[in-house]
């Protein structure tokens, strides 16, 4: 450890002008102490460390020559005339490179030995370019890439003699075993999360700004932070006392634009993991919502320096292809297209990018936002992949009914617009959900190895019976009247629900026709017919008698709002006779229904299917319907002065409308078919007669009813009888 | 680029400034940095905004990780329109004081109501008026 002592002796005074104050000296001494006696000195495997030291010592003389030689032809010397100081530094064995793991130096292939600035960043990320390696900011100083990855991934570099020694001496911990591909958590001199003791920040900023090299030790404690997956701890970041006007991004900006040479061999994971860490945060809680001000001039060169580099590098790095095999091919294509676009966008961000101009405000914000893209594209794709997985469905009409309907409607609208020739319809991007075959998973209960028999384990799929509930049916005698009524109502409700399910199925058949194969269609038709019949049976009551003895069942259904709506929907599917039957029953019981409908006022929904139906009915039916509606006695007996049935009908909007439609239909039939039987004629005129009579007897009909009444212009024959 | 048209997804909201309302009533404003499938959020440069009447105060909070189930709603903030508000910003101390006063008055009103309620005849509960809710 003889070099160690020489380091301590190494006067830091020479570079006082390069950095401010002698405070750093004290800090460094403390650092030395810590490394020697404190947490940094933990070193279980001193033998290994010793051996390594010995190795490096041998290599040292060789390295020294190389360095001196290379320094001269260092054309990428951005920071000025440090070649002159090369010799100086060499002789003093400055510790500026202890951040750089000798292994990394070997592993990373660069142009022959750069003299990195003291306190510089570990530039293993920036491997292809030596200049990049020189860009060191206070924060990046903390980062240490995984030694192993680079070691294996990249060819060996000529060792850096003097620095290696120093590095090793400073770095007390041995190299851990590593895996070639992924690497392992790096060696830590100090436990993760330890706030750094001191930061010789000003020195760093000075370094970069000032051409001279600085003999300063970079901040030590977290020397080997995790390369990826772990962002820098806020402590580390925040404790960097950035001075106003000395923000690192601006420093990066000073570096004349160069494009990082492709790091083909670079592990893209490393890159991506590093992306977020390249930029320092604003210290404390300055201007929260303004973009971090780059106080130093030329921020306009391009977005924070590392940005474009990062993105360039990233774009050149091999693309991560997440597992998208289960996605619909079109969606997969879209995903990759998007990725390509994003990459193009990033490329355009550098310098003049016209493509990004239309999104300028957002892009501007992103450009100035050093924390942008913390969430990698890969991760975004992962989340959207999960979302897409949740949308997988074998039957989207079943699982996602409203979504499908809504988008169909939109499409129809846009198609209609297009037909009108409004111009090109606006692009409506559609979501393509993956179509996946449903897999039936047979549930197999958990089986333990080596157990005799099966153990019953209660789980979500296999719940254990906890309560012995027995269904007891009540006897009829015990029930009170109210209970009976309640039960009856419940039964009606159940019937309505069952019929409704049938109705939904029947309505769905049309769609299924289109989807299914030719052979299956007849079977579907039969199914449909069958269902329609059972619907009708449900409505009318299942009594198989020739004549439906009671309307009671139907009336009960019609008393419930849902029942009425359902009947309105069922009517189009029924045959004419069946539908006429329904209509007849309704007309017969209309006053009662009207009374029951007082609260719901849903009867008018039946009007349109009824009116449609009426156009298909023959005149006989119409006439009888009219009779039913008005409750006329079959024989033309003297019409009662007050006909409560008719009164009720007329006083209700629905009833009135129905009557009117009936009459108008009857009129049409009469006029269109002059050769009608006289009985029919008589009946019709009777109808007209009663009609005229009741007009006077109605008291305060509802106003819409009134309006209907007076807009109706009965034909001359009818009025002639009044 | 519309990531997933027709769906609700937070992916396009990333790196934008958002206002997040939590189930416990807090209002957070921050840059949405990261999400996951549960809509857990990572908010950056977060500020907790307390509103009392026409005044509001901001408490800087740093980085927030919010569990998805605790979010009531969130929405993007238009940076240009952000300052265009009739509300008046005050200091943290002041807004906290205002909030305390508001809570106080609310409690008192509640106590009064409860007292009246329980002091009526025939309405006895096990609760003491003025006690904890």
TrEMBL record, chain A:
Residues 670-685 have a biased composition (Polar residues). GO terms for molecular function: RNA binding. It holds the Pfam family PAT1. Residues 7-26 have a biased composition (Acidic residues). Residues 294-307 have a biased composition (Pro residues). Residues 1-26, 288-314, 340-370, 670-709 are annotated as: Disordered. It is found in: Cytoplasm, P-body; Nucleus speckle; Nucleus, PML body. Coiled coil: none annotated. Belongs to the PAT1 family. This is Protein PAT1 homolog 1. It comes from Macaca fascicularis (Crab-eating macaque).
Automatic annotation (TrEMBL), chain B:
GO terms for cellular component: Lsm1-7-Pat1 complex; P-body; ribonucleoprotein complex. One of its GO terms (biological process) is deadenylation-dependent decapping of nuclear-transcribed mRNA. SUPFAM superfamilies: Sm-like ribonucleoproteins. GO terms for molecular function: mRNA binding. PROSITE patterns: SM. Keywords: Cytoplasm, mRNA processing, mRNA splicing, Phosphoprotein, Ribonucleoprotein, RNA-binding. It is found in: Cytoplasm; Cytoplasm, P-body. Residues 5-80 form the Sm domain. SMART domains: Sm (SM00651). InterPro entries: Lsm1, LSM_dom_sf, PTHR15588, Sm, Sm_dom_euk/arc. CDD domains: LSm1. It holds the Pfam family LSM. PANTHER family: LSM1, U6 SNRNA-ASSOCIATED SM-LIKE PROTEIN LSM1. Interacts with SLBP; interaction with SLBP occurs when histone mRNA is being rapidly degraded during the S phase. LSm subunits form a heteromer with a donut shape. Plays a role in the degradation of histone mRNAs, the only eukaryotic mRNAs that are not polyadenylated. Probably also part of an LSm subunits-containing complex involved in the general process of mRNA degradation. Belongs to the snRNP Sm proteins family. This is U6 snRNA-associated Sm-like protein LSm1. It comes from Macaca fascicularis (Crab-eating macaque).
């Amino acid at each position: 450890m003889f070099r160690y002592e020489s380091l301590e002796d190494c006067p830091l005074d020479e570079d006082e002008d390069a950095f401010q104050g002698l405070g750093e000296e004290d800090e460094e001494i403390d650092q030395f102490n810590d490394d020697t006696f404190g947490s940094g000195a933990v070193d279980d495997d001193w033998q290994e460390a010793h051996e390594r030291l010995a190795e490096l010592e041998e290599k040292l003389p060789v390295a020294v020559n190389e360095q001196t030689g290379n320094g001269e032809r260092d054309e990428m010397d951005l920071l000025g005339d440090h070649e002159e100081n090369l010799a100086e530094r060499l002789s003093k064995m400055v510790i500026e490179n202890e951040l750089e793991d000798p292994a990394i130096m070997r592993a990373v292939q660069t142009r022959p030995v750069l003299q990195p600035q003291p306190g510089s960043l570990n530039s293993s990320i920036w491997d292809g370019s030596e200049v990049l390696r020189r860009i060191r900011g206070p924060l990046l100083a903390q980062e240490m890439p995984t030694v192993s990855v680079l070691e294996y991934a990249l060819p060996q570099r000529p060792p850096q003699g003097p620095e290696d020694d120093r590095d090793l001496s400073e770095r007390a911990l041995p190299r851990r075993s590593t895996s070639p591909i992924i690497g392992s958590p790096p060696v830590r001199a100090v436990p993760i999360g330890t706030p750094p003791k001191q930061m010789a920040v000003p020195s760093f900023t000075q370094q970069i700004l000032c051409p001279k090299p600085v003999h300063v030790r970079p901040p030590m404690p977290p020397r080997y932070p995790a390369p990826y997956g772990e962002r820098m701890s806020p402590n580390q970041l925040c404790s960097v006392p950035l001075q106003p006007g000395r923000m690192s991004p601006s420093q990066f900006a000073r570096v004349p634009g160069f494009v990082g040479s492709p790091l083909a061999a670079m592990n893209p994971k490393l890159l991506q993991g590093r992306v977020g860490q390249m930029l320092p945060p604003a210290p404390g809680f300055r201007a929260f919502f303004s973009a971090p001000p780059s106080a130093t001039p030329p921020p306009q060169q391009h977005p924070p320096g590392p940005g474009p580099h990062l993105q360039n590098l990233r774009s050149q790095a091999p693309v991560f292809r997440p597992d998208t095999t289960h996605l619909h091919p079109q969606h997969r294509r879209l995903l990759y297209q998007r990725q390509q676009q994003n990459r193009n966008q990033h490329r355009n961000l550098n310098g003049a990018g016209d493509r990004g101009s239309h999104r300028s405000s957002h892009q501007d914000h992103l450009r100035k936002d050093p924390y942008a893209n913390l969430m990698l594209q890969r991760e975004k794709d992962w989340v959207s992949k999960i979302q897409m997985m949740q949308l997988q469905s074998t039957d989207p009409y079943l699982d996602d009914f409203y979504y499908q309907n809504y988008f169909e409607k939109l499409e129809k609208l846009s198609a209609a617009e297009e037909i009108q020739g409004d111009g090109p319809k606006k692009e409506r991007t559609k979501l393509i959900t993956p179509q996946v075959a449903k897999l039936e998973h047979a549930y197999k209960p958990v089986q333990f190895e080596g157990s005799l028999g099966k153990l019953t384990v209660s789980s979500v799929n296999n719940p254990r019976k906890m309560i012995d509930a027995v269904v007891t049916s009540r006897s009829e005698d015990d029930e009170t009247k109210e209970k009976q009524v309640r039960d009856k109502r419940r039964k009606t409700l159940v019937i309505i629900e069952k019929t409704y399910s049938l109705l939904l199925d029947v309505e769905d058949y049309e769609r299924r026709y289109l989807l299914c194969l030719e052979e299956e269609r007849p079977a579907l038709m039969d199914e449909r017919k069958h269902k329609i019949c059972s619907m009708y049976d449900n409505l009318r009551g299942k009594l198989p008698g020739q004549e439906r003895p009671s309307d009671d069942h139907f009336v009960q259904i019609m008393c419930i709002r849902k029942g009425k709506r359902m009947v309105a929907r069922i009517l189009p599917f029924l045959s004419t006779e069946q539908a006429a039957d329904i209509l007849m029953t309704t007309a017969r019981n209309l006053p009662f229904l009207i009374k029951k409908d007082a609260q719901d006022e849903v009867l008018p929904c039946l009007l349109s299917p009824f009116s449609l139906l009426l156009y298909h009915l023959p005149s006989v039916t119409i006439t009888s319907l009219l009779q039913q509606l008005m409750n006329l006695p079959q024989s033309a007996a003297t019409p009662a002065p007050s006909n409560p049935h008719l009164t009720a009908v007329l006083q209700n909007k629905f009833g009135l409308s129905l009557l009117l439609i009936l009459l108008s239909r009857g009129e049409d039939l009469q006029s269109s078919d002059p050769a009608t039987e006289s009985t029919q004629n008589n009946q019709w005129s009777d109808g007209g007669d009663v009609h005229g009579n009741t007009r006077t007897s109605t008291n305060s009909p509802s106003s819409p009813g009134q309006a209907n009444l007076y807009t109706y212009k009965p034909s001359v024959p009818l009025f002639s009888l009044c | 680029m519309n990531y997933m048209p027709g769906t609700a997804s937070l992916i396009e909201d990333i790196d934008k400034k958002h206002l997040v309302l939590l189930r416990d009533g807090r209002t957070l404003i921050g840059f949405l940095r990261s999400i996951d499938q549960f809509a857990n959020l990572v908010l950056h440069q977060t500020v907790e905004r307390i509103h009392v009447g026409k005044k509001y105060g901001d408490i800087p909070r740093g980085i927030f990780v919010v569990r998805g189930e605790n979010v009531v709603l969130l929405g993007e903030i238009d940076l240009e329109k952000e300052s265009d508000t009739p509300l008046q910003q005050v200091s943290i101390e002041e807004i906290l004081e205002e909030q305390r006063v508001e809570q106080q008055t609310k409690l008192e009103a509640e106590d009064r109501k409860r007292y009246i309620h329980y002091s009526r005849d025939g309405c006895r509960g096990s609760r003491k008026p003025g006690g904890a809710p």
